[in-house]
């Protein structure tokens, strides 16, 4: 219910751009001054104080959700005298009431929201952004207005006493207690969500192989979404014991997989799974989706734990994909077979004799020692190169080499072996191009461009997007498969969800508006084609697909995450990027739709759980305003992406994005400076112009 008549309020007479933005709200706003104070005293109504500024993202969100809404306005006007303050015009008022908010809540920012007594203007409740309705533990403004308004009418002495106590505590720097006034806004999301996350962590912890990493018994699958869930779990638990244990599980698994034979140490890339506990003997088939998801896991762990081995593995995965799995037109092929010449693994294994013939005696002996190539072999009489038992200290001591010198020698040997291996008969390549798996690799490459600062990765991702738009997107409908000039099969949920994921990451990496536009367009189409209007969640097939016996709806996160899991995360991220309340509501519906299923076996849905983790944590949005060619932009991006910020969204405003996201028009551009706006936990900080200043805000 919005104010369709747009009847102006008193703010229309003000000069402040921020106050003028609210001049047509149905809220009966007053500017800060005696007229409002006199009305509050005369009518014995508390003051509803809202402080912000014209370029504050969450100020605009709260206006759209609440202050433009008739239902909210009626409650404000009934119970309170509403006052709107521009913090840039009245820093004195802002400073005073920010102190109260920080004392009461432990944090502050804008929009700043307070409830004050009518005469002395002492706060009795404070916060920053409030959504219209209560959700996920954050009280909604509707509930808050009703409960505080009715409490004032029924028990003024209690509120005044609490306000006096708060005032005394703040002015004497004591710790205030306001639990008696906190409205009873019980939302069961936080308890059940945290329980599910904790159960998933505990289950993974019990099945974790402490020596070799991974989960469960052989055969062992990489399951990268377990690792990215654990990285977020570690992040969310800060420096506690759970954080250490979660981080250890990720580090051990990535390290041991990277050492094992499941990784191709000659030509790079990961095989599908390991047949043993040690990650030594793989099923030699290589899948595009495994390599995409593992690259993301290595990159995120590099951000979180800063191990250079993680950077190396991500680069090696991309080297393999761009060399062997990329079509000339830009899409990515699906897989490579395990067999060559009818024999599994023949392309990948070696004997000491072959190594020595290629490398010579000394270099061959070093390579065989380092990579476990022995006369007896480790796979049907031959050897899969691996680093599982490599004693680097002994190798270096024997040759009086540093680790760096050893690795340089071994890299030269690898290049020679790779050149010889190219002459072997290769495994069959499955050269079909799948939209869904391409979406995963687009996401991985875009994240590689973010974290490693490599423009070539973003360029490869963009080429894949252009390929899909040209060959797999017809009449506002994604198709699932392309091969040999033929595109076929109506796209499934995974095609939409995974490609949207890739587009979001690519926009975050490049700032090119077209990628965000396409993501939003696809999300609208996905909602239209796949949404279950009766029970919520997304079907696997579109409403225009062939009618089968049943219409499946998948959520289990197996070899790849489910489309429903990635959709939940996409919706939250797009909502935070655009401020679109409809997207946010759809995200909440998506999460609630699968609550019972998630509770049955939480660790089976570790990708879906990452959407819940995002919903639970405080939001953080960064707007980088200025030219995409500004030299300071690169420094700011490096500052943002060098650390693990899993719940941060990034917008680039160079003067055109406000056409897509109207509230960005309030973020001024400076032709000389790059400006970074940081909004965190629904409140905004002062803008900064240097990467060092932004870094200080992000710590």
Search tags:
five-stranded mixed beta sheet; 19 strands; 6-hairpin_glycosidase_sf; alpha+beta; disordered N terminus; Glutaredoxin; 26 helices
Task: Summarize the SSE layout with pairings.
Layout: H1 17-21, E1 30-31, H2 34-43, E2 47-52, H3 57-67, H4 70-79, E3 81-86, H5 91-105, E4 112-116, E5 123-127, H6 141-154, H7 156-171, H8 189-207, H9 224-236, H10 241-259, E6 273-274, E7 282-283, E8 286-287, H11 288-305, H12 308-324, E9 335-336, E10 339-340, E11 343-344, H13 352-359, H14 361-371, H15 392-399, H16 403-421, E12 429-430, E13 433-434, H17 435-452, H18 455-471, E14 479-483, E15 486-490, H19 493-510, H20 513-530, H21 563-578, H22 581-593, H23 595-600, H24 606-616, E16 620-625, H25 631-641, E17 648-653, E18 675-680, E19 683-684, H26 691-698
Parallel strand pairs: 1-3, 2-3, 16-17
Antiparallel strand pairs: 2-4, 4-5, 6-7, 8-9, 9-12, 10-11, 13-14, 14-15, 16-18, 18-19
Helix pairs in contact: 4-6, 6-7, 8-24, 9-10, 9-11, 9-24, 10-11, 11-12, 11-17, 13-14, 17-18, 17-19, 18-19, 19-20, 19-21, 21-22, 21-24, 25-26
The named CATH superfamily of the domain at 10-187: Glutaredoxin
Looking at the structure, the CATH topology of the domain at 10-187 is: Glutaredoxin
Query: Helix proportion of residues, in percent?
Result: 40-55%
Number of helices: 26
Poorly predicted sequence stretches spanning 5 or more consecutive residues: 1-5, 174-186
Q: What is the name of the CATH architecture of the domain at 10-187?
A: 3-Layer(aba) Sandwich
- Compute the average pLDDT: 92
- Derived from helix and strand composition plus strand pairing, the structural class reads alpha+beta
Counted beta strands: 19
Q: Give the CA-CA distance, first to last residue.
A: 40 Å
Give the biggest sheet.
5 strands, mixed
Rounded to an integer in angstroms, the radius of gyration calculated over CA atoms is 29 Å
Order of strands across the biggest sheet? 1-3-2-4-5
CATH structural class of the domain at 10-187:
Alpha Beta
Strand content: 5-15%
In one word, what is the shape? Answer: elongated
InterPro entries: 6-hairpin_glycosidase_sf, 6hp_glycosidase-like_sf, Ssp411, Ssp411-like_TRX, Thioredoxin-like_sf
Protein name: Spermatogenesis-associated protein 20-like TRX domain-containing protein
Domain Spermatogenesis-associated protein 20-like TRX: 9-170
Pfam family, one: Thioredox_DsbH
